[in-house]
Amino acid sequence: MSNRVALVTGGAQGIGQGIALALGEHGHRVAIADLNVEAAQATAEQIAAAGGSALAVQADITSTVSVQAAVKTVTGELGPVEIVVNNAGWDDFMKFVDTDEDFWDRILDINFKGALRVIRTVVPGMIEGGFGRVINIGSDAGRVGSSLEAVYSGAKGGIIAFTKTLAREVATKGVTANTVCPGPTDTPALRKFADSSGQDADKVLGGMVRAVPMKRLAQPEDIAAAVAFFASDAAGYITGQTLSVSGGLTMA
């Protein structure tokens, strides 16, 4: 069934934008929650121009009050949230021994606790309504580790484990919970990393491409296709699963 209300955090650009556009194409009413509400509005307008329904809402996932306010706005404008995609995230690349506790706290607050805040806010309503799809965006870094991303890898590994446990707890309530793990994806964030790496950006990206069996970076729409499937009624008997979308980079 389409026309469900879907909330996508960090949905203004990159992978999140691809997910929001795909859910709109599948007929869902999409709420795009992002710190950058102007960019979120631009994405909402793209969905509307294609004949869909979308709402931009400002949200800071490091604040429970902000998350609750955003969900209240979405519920008032579109209806109760039935699909939630926890995509918002942040990382910086450095050796673990060069990090400090402030860095750890920021990584965990955004990439782990941010998803918890959103889920804690929307899942009770899903249980009450007898239907829900929780889709968390993890990372292959959380499955196999990633150099210069130790804390981020730990946070994403935590998301994977948390999602499995949540799936068990809500399995009889009509709610599923799954994780999609992107591999290297061609987004503004990745290109910013390549540009700031201190090396030739094309060589950095070329090295990533060579490591992928399919010999290309993922595009946001590749990740979005997996999310759209997990959001669908066809995936109603699939829960607690972790799916890598990485061109074969991770096979497990």
Question: How does this structure look, described?
Answer:
There is one protein chain. This protein is α/β, with parallel strands linked by helices and 252 residues long. It has two domains: 5-183 and 219-243, Rossmann fold, CATH 3.40.50.720; 184-217, no CATH class. The protein has helices at 14-25, 37-49, 64-77, 101-129, 141-144, 150-170, 188-195, 201-211, 220-231, and strands spanning 5-9, 29-34, 53-58, 83-86, 132-137, 175-182, 242-245. A seven-stranded parallel beta sheet has the order 3-2-1-4-5-6-7, with helices on both faces. α2 links the parallel β2 (29-34) and β3. The longest helix is centred in the middle third of the chain and has 29 residues, at 101-129.
> What gyration radius follows from the Cα positions, in whole Å?
17 Å
Query: What low-confidence regions span 5 or more consecutive residues with pLDDT below 50?
Result: none
Strand order of the largest sheet: 3-2-1-4-5-6-7
What's the total count of β strands?
7
- DSSP strand content: 15-25%
* Terminal residue distance: 31 Å
Concise synopsis of the structure shown:
This protein has 252 residues and is α/β, with parallel strands linked by helices.
Offer a few descriptive terms.
2 domains; alpha/beta; Rossmann fold; 9 helices; 7 strands; 252 residues
Give the helix/strand layout:
Elements: E1 5-9, H1 14-25, E2 29-34, H2 37-49, E3 53-58, H3 64-77, E4 83-86, H4 101-129, E5 132-137, H5 141-144, H6 150-170, E6 175-182, H7 188-195, H8 201-211, H9 220-231, E7 242-245
Parallel strand pairs: 1-2, 1-4, 2-3, 4-5, 5-6, 6-7
Helix pairs in contact: 1-2, 1-9, 3-4, 4-6, 7-8
